[in-house]
C-alpha cells in the first residue's frame, strides 16, 4: 500500500489512489514525474493568469496617467486661453489662433479625461482626437514661449499628447 501523507491537493490524492497495491520503491520516481509534469502545466496557467492581471493593471495605470495628464493640460489651456483672450482684446493679433486652439484643446482634454477615467469603449478614439488637439495647441503655444502661460501650455500639451498616444495604442 502507498502511504504518502504529505500529498494534499486533489491531483496528489488522485496519484495516491493510483498507487494502491504497488511497491513504493518502483512507483515513487513515476509519481514524482507525474506530479512535476502536472505542476508545470499549472505553472503555465498561473503565468498566463498573472500576465492577464499584469496587463489589466498596466492598462489601468496607463489610463490613470492619461487622465491626470489630460486634467493638467486642461488647466494649462484654461490659463493660456485667458491670457490669449486678454492679449487679443488688447489688440495683439498674434494670439487669436492660440486662443481658439487652447479653447478647443481644453474641452477635448476634459472629455478625454472623463472617458479615460471610466475606461469607456471609445477611449482610443478620444485619445487620438486629444493627441491631435494637443499637438496643434502645443505647436501654436510653443511659438510664444517667452510668455509663461504659453510655455506651460506647450509643455503640458506635449506631455498630454505623449500619454494619449500610448492610450491610443490600447485599441
List keywords for this structure.
171 residues, mainly alpha, 5 helices, 0% strand, elongated
Overview of this protein structure:
The chain has 171 residues and is an all-alpha fold. Helices cover 81% and strands 0% of the residues. It contains 5 helices and no strands.
β-strand number: 0
Secondary structural class? mainly alpha
* Helix coverage percent: over 70%
Cα-atom Rg, whole angstroms?
30 Å
How many strands, which pairing sense, and closed or not: the largest β-sheet?
none
Give the low-confidence spans: 7-11, 46-50
How far is it from the N-terminal to the C-terminal residue, by CA? 58 Å
The run of helices and strands is HHHHH
Shape: elongated
Question: Percent of residues in beta strands?
Answer: under 5%
How many H/I helical runs?
5
Average pLDDT confidence is 81
